[in-house]
Specification:
By secondary structure, the protein is mainly α. The protein has helices at about 25-50, 55-70, 80-95, 100-130.
Amino acid sequence: MSAAPPPPEGVAASPGRPRRRRGAAESLLSIVLVLEAMSMFFVMLVVNGRDLLPTGVAFGGGLGAIVVMLLVSRVLRFRWGIVLGCLVQIGLIACGLLDPVMYVVAAVFVALWTYCLIKGLQLDRLNAARYGDPGESA
């Protein structure tokens, strides 16, 4: 008995579920949240290094914030995911209470988040009108 021949080049071995198309807003906002998560690692180190919080609280809170940002970046396809992302931005602003330099960092990320949200939704609406994909915009 011989095994089944391999599938032709460029064809998947198992047909599985087709990959979902991500909208522009989802992609852009996800990138912003992942960048925020990476910067939060350095914020965590600064807060610990300047002894603004006990070590366990600084690392626990920082890692918790990183996990939340990464999880929220995965649910941005839903309207409530975008709302959670906005709450993450408010939390980032609140980090300025620990270190005033965080107000500058938060201002940059909030501006980037707002721009990506507005432009991403515009692109999603444009693509839906152009390609007839209703429901793609968040």
